[in-house]
Amino acid sequence: MLEKIREGSQGPVAKIILGAVILSFALAGIGGYLGQTTEQPVAEVNGIKISQTDFARAYQNERARLEQQFGEYFAQISSDPTYMAQIRKGVVDRLVQQELQNQLATELGLRVSDEQVKKAIVEMPYFQLGGEFSNDRYLQVIRQMNFQPDSFREYLREEMTRSQLVSAVAGTEFVLSNELSNTVALQQQTRALDYIVLGKDKMKAQVTLEDDAVINYYELNQDKYQSTEQVSVQYLELNAENVDPEVAVTDADVLAYYEESKTQYLEPEKRRVSHILIENNEDDAAANAEAQALLVQLREGADFSELAKTKSDDIVSAELGGDLDWIELDMMDPEFESAAFALENVGDISGVVASEFGYHIIKLTDIEREEVQAFDEVKVELRAELEKNAKIDAFYQKQTEIAELAFEMSDSLEDAALAAGVELKSTGLISRLALPAPLNTPAVSNVVFTPELLEDRVNSEVLEVGSEHIIVVRVLDYAPAATKPFDDVKAQIETSLINEQASALVNEHAQTLFGELQAGKSLTEIATTEGVDVSSEDALARQTYSVAPAILNEAFKLPHPVDGKSEVAVVELNNGDAALVQLNRVNSAAPTADLDEQQKQSITNSQINRNYLAFVTALEAKAEVVRPQIQVSEQN
Predict the structure, then answer these.
(1) Is 53 helix (H, G, I), strand (E, B) or coil?
(2) Is the pLDDT of residue 393 over 90?
(3) What's the rounded Cα separation, in Å, for the pair 140 and 128?
(4) With contact defined as beta carbons under 8 Å apart, do 495 and 561 qualify?
(5) Residue 557 contacts by C-beta under 8 Å, 6 or more apart in sequence?
(6) What proportions of the chain, in percent to the nearest 5, are helix, strand and coil?
(7) Alpha helices per DSSP H over 427-483
(8) How deeply is 287 buried, as exposed, middle or buried, from its count of CB atoms within 10 A (0-12, 13-18, 19+)?
(9) Which entry of 59, 134, 529, 595 is 20 to 30 Å from 464 by CA?
C-alpha cells in the first residue's frame, strides 16, 4: 500500500494537483487576515485545531476564484448572505477534509523529503525569470502570500504529502466493462412526459402588501442592500516594454554578441544511417554469430538493402532497406551512436555493434556536417534580444529606485514617478470590481483594501502584475460599504415581496391541482381549466435543455410507469413558477459493448470522484470533528 502511494505521488495526477494549488496562489494570493481577532478555531479534528488564519487564507483564495469566474456579477452574488455563508461552510469543510488526510498520511508514515520540496520550488514557473529559478522572485511571491520561506516549505510539503493519498485513490480505481456499458445505457435512456407550467404572474393580482411590510423587511434585511466599498487610488506603473534603455544597441554590440553566443547558432552534424538488427532475446551467442555471418556477406559484396529486408529483426526499417533516416547525437543507444558517428565516409559499414536491443550492422548513407548560421541570418534576432535585455536591465534599475523612494517618501508617489520617468495615474471613487487594469488583479486589489493603505494612506510595496511589469499604489480616498437608503431600494423590495408571495400562492394552488391529478382528473382537463398549454416530450434526454432543470430532474427521479399507469409529480421551478409533470413512458437504451475512450474515461472519472468523496467521508465518520458555531467576518 505504502509503495503504491509513493509511486502515485510522482505521477501526473499528483503534479496536476500540486500545480493547481500553486496556480491558485499565483493568481489569487493569500491576502490579509479576514477573521475575528479571536483564537477560537473554525474547526477541530481529532484534537487538532484549524485556526482562523488557515481559514482566512483558504477563504480569500476561494473569493478570488469566484471573482475570476463570475466577474462583475460576483458583487451581486456576494451580497447574498446565505450564499456567502454556504461558501464559508464549504471552505471549512475542505479544511477539515485536508486535516483528515494529513493525519492519515502521518499515520501511514508518508512524508516528502526536503530535496523533493526544494526541487518542486525550483521547477515552479512562478518563481522563474527567463526560464531560471530566481530566489529574489521566490521571496517576493511568497511574501505577498504572507509566508516566510520556512512556513512556505512546510505548507508545500503538506500539500505534496496529501496529494500522495489523492494519487493513490485515483491511480487504483477501475470500472468493470459491464458497469461501463450499463452506465452508458442509463445515460442514454430517455423519457416521454407531458407537463404544464403554472405561472406566478397570474397570482400577483391576489397579493396585497401590508403598509409596514416593506419597511419591516428593509430593516430586518439591511445586509442585502449594502453598497460596495469604494476607493480612489493613485498609482505609478512601470513596464519593461515601455522603458528606454540607457544606451542604444549598436551594430558593433550585435556583432560582439554573435561572437560570444555563436555556439547557440550551430547546426549540429546529422547522419543518415541504415542498419540490420539481429535480436538477442533468446540466444545471445547465436544472434552474435548470425550478425557476424551477415557482416562477412556484406564485406564480400552482398547488397546491404536486400539483406536488411530479409534478415533484419527491425521490421519497420527492414521494409525500407534498413533506413533509419537522419539522426543526431543523443538520439540513439550510446553504443549504436558511437559506432554510427565513427564511420568516416558515406557507404562505410561498421562491424557488429552490441546494444540493449541486440546486434547491429550500421551503414552510413549520408552526412550533413556541422554548420554555423551566418551573422546576417540571425542579426535581426540578436538585436531584438539585446534590446529586450537592455530594457529589462533598465527596468530593474528603475524598479530599485522606485522601491527606495516609495518607502522613503511613504506619503507621496511623486518623487518615485519622477525618478522612473513615468506619469502618475489616479482614479475616482470606484468599487473593487471596477478597478482598471493593471489594478484589477487580486494581488493588487487585496493590497489596496488592507487597513495599512486605507487608514494610513501610505504607499504600497512594489507589486508585480506581470513579467517585468510592476505598480506602486496609494489610497487617496475611501468610502466604506454602507446600507443603501430605503427610498433607493423600496421598489426593489416591493417587487421581491410580491414575487415571493405570488410564488407561494401558485405553489399552494399547484398542490391542490396535484391532488386532482392523483384522483384521476386528466392533465389536459386541468390545463384547459387553468388556461395553459400541455407541453410534451417524447424522448427527453438527461442532457436536454428544452425544459426547465427542475422538471428534467423530477422526470428522471420518477419511477417507471407500471401497467400503463402514468407517474405524476408537482415541481417548484427556480423562477417561482410551479409545474405538474406526468411521466408516461421510459425509453430504455440497450447496453453497448463498443465504447469510445472518451466515454470510458468520463465514466471512470465520475467513479473516481464518487469513491474519493466516500473515502473522505469515511475518514470523517471515524474522526472526532467539532465545528464551533462561530461567525467569521469579511473585510471586503
Answers:
(1) helix
(2) no
(3) 12
(4) no
(5) 569
(6) 55, 20, 30
(7) 442-448, 451-456
(8) buried
(9) 59
pLDDT tens digits, 105-145 = 888 888 888 888 888 888 888 888 767 888 878 887 787 66
What angle is formed at CA 101 by the lines to CA 98 and CA 102, rounded to 5 degrees?
85
Q: Could you give the count of Cα atoms lying within 13 Å of 366 in the half-sphere of its Cβ?
A: 8
HEC letters along 583-622:
EEEEECCCCCCCCCHHHHHHHHHHHHHHHHHHHHHHHHHH
C-alpha cell at 506: 401558485
pLDDT digits (tens, 9 = 90+) for 68-80: 777 767 776 776 7
Q: Which three cell numbers stand for residue 266?
A: 550551430
The arrangement of strands across the sheet holding 323-327 comes to 323-327, 270-278, 358-368, 349-355
Q: For position 206, what pLDDT does the model report? A: 92
Residue 236 backbone dihedrals phi, psi, to 5 degrees: -115, 145
C-alpha distance from residue 60 to each of 4, 141, 534, 550 (Å): 35, 16, 48, 32
Q: How confident is the model at residue 8 (pLDDT cuts 50, 70, 90)?
A: very low
Report how far residue 152's alpha carbon sits from residue 159's, in angstroms, rounded to the nearest whole number.
10
Mean pLDDT of the chain: 83
* CA 320/CA 400 separation, integer angstroms: 63
CB proximity list for 300: less than 8 A, separation 6 or greater: none
The angle at the Cα of 220, spanning 478 to 200, to the nearest 5 degrees, equals: 110
CA atoms within a 13 Å half-sphere pointing along the CA-CB vector of 205: 2
pLDDT of residue 187: 80
Query: Angle at CA 614, nearest 5°, toward 613 and 617?
Result: 85
For the chain, domain boundaries: 1-30, 36-109+173-188+591-635, 111-167, 190-218+490-587, 230-248+380-483, 266-372
The matching CATH number, chosen from 3.30.70.100, 3.40.50.2300, 3.10.50.40, 3.30.300.30, for 266-372 is 3.10.50.40
Q: What is the 3-state secondary structure (H, E, C) of 233-289?
A: EEEEEEEHHHCCCCCCCCHHHHHHHHHHCHHHHEECCEEEEEEEEECCCCCHHHHHH
CB 175 within 8 A of CB 604: yes
Per the DSSP assignment, residues forming a β-bridge with 193 are 537, 583
Report helix, strand or coil for 291. Answer: helix
Q: What is the pLDDT of residue 629?
A: 57
- pLDDT, tens digit (0-9, with 9 covering 90-100), for 454-499: 999 999 999 988 888 999 999 999 998 888 899 999 999 999 999 9
- Distance linking the first and last C-alpha atoms of the chain: 45
CA dist 444 and 459 (Å) reads 12
Nearest CA-CA partner of 8 in 110, 117, 83? 110
- Are the CB atoms for 338 and 271 separated by under 8 Å? no
Residue 615, all three cell numbers: 473515502
- The pTM for the full model equals 0.46
CA dist., res. 310 & res. 71, Å (int): 67
Our measurement of the distance from residue 263's CA atom to the centroid of its chain's CA atoms, rounded to an integer in Å, reads 39
